[in-house]
Amino acid sequence: MSNNFILPDNKLIDKFFDENNFNLYYSKPALKHIKEFILAGISKRFSSKTTDIAEYSENHRTTIGHFLSKGNWNEEFIKEIIKNQSLEFSFDYAKNNDEPIFILHDDTVSEKTNPSSQAKSPIEKTDFCYSHLTGRTVLGHQLLTTMIQSGEHNLVYDLQRYDREGKSKIDTVCDIAESMPTPPTNAYALFDSWYNCPKIINAYAKKGYHCIGALKRNRIIYPKGIRIGISDYAKYIQKSDVHLVTVNGSEYWVHRYEGNLNNIENAVVILSWPVDAFKNSKALRAFLCTNVSLDEKTILEYYSKRWSIEVYFRQSKSILGLDKYQVRSIKAIDRIWVLQNLVYLFCTIGLDKPMKFGRGVLEARKHSKREYIEWIYECAQTGIPLNTTLELLNVA
């Protein structure tokens, strides 16, 4: 691209940078690259490729690739910004509105093509992992994600690449639990059956958080002191042992067990079936809640909020290109994920008011277009010839 390329200022991004003290930690060239990534990230058809970012930069895509893989800048500061901003906003909102806080854990797979045996530089650190989305084992990177939710606000907190040579996913979630501050209101960690284990539950309990999670049907419970698996216990449940609850517009038959599980002294276990599938073993779902004061309807409603993290995965892949990067260095890949989450943070609580990510992207795009138009208008008002303006924007 031409060295005369001019990128009009984006006042919202500049304000976002100032409020988070980016200038204290990054040089002007690094700040410029990060700003360009945000501008590219809110554009349509962004896929995290260096060619996409280059459309918003005076630099060639190879320079951008060098910035990601070898640039002298610390992405850990951005990670801390994301964590601190998400925590502060969610905790303040929960306290001021008397709302519960939810910590969501789940993982997803960024699938990649199996490289040829002739490939000289395949994508680093890929591994074979099971994809729940496709129902098969695929090659790629596995991403462990944590979100914070309060009210209607869903914020990304942390995203880590799972490396089977390092810590387990269970230990990683325990580390996150131990790093959480004491919540100002009732707080719950939500997860699927894979993460529902005493180690995580105890780690959260020490910090003042309850847990709600799906249970596998072979988990052992002790009704009246009898040791039995959930699926076998369900065979003895009759219509008189259940009642209907409505959750998010759908009806379910539910049965409540309260008592011991292996390595868990006392908790609530909810067995549920869709209204038209009572006693259907394939339709049976089980959920655990460590707050025994909650009723069945509230437990199921709270657990349904875990869906927000699935929405995050879908939006991050379709809008931010979470799984479409083409850089090969693992350092560059890790940095791209950090910058993608910075875009997510900017579009949720970095604009004039907090909003859902999908709406925030649209608002950020409108603002960016408006600033371009205003800049072009100012060029015309100050007498800059049209051809010069086109050259400055590299569209002559």
From TrEMBL:
Pfam families, sorted: DDE_Tnp_1
Entry's Gene Ontology molecular function annotations: DNA binding; transposase activity
Recorded coiled-coil stretches: none
Domain Transposase IS4-like: from-to ranges: 166-345
Protein's recorded name: Transposase family protein
Cross-referenced InterPro entries: RNaseH-like_sf (IPR012337), Transposase_11 (IPR002559)
GO BP of this protein: DNA transposition
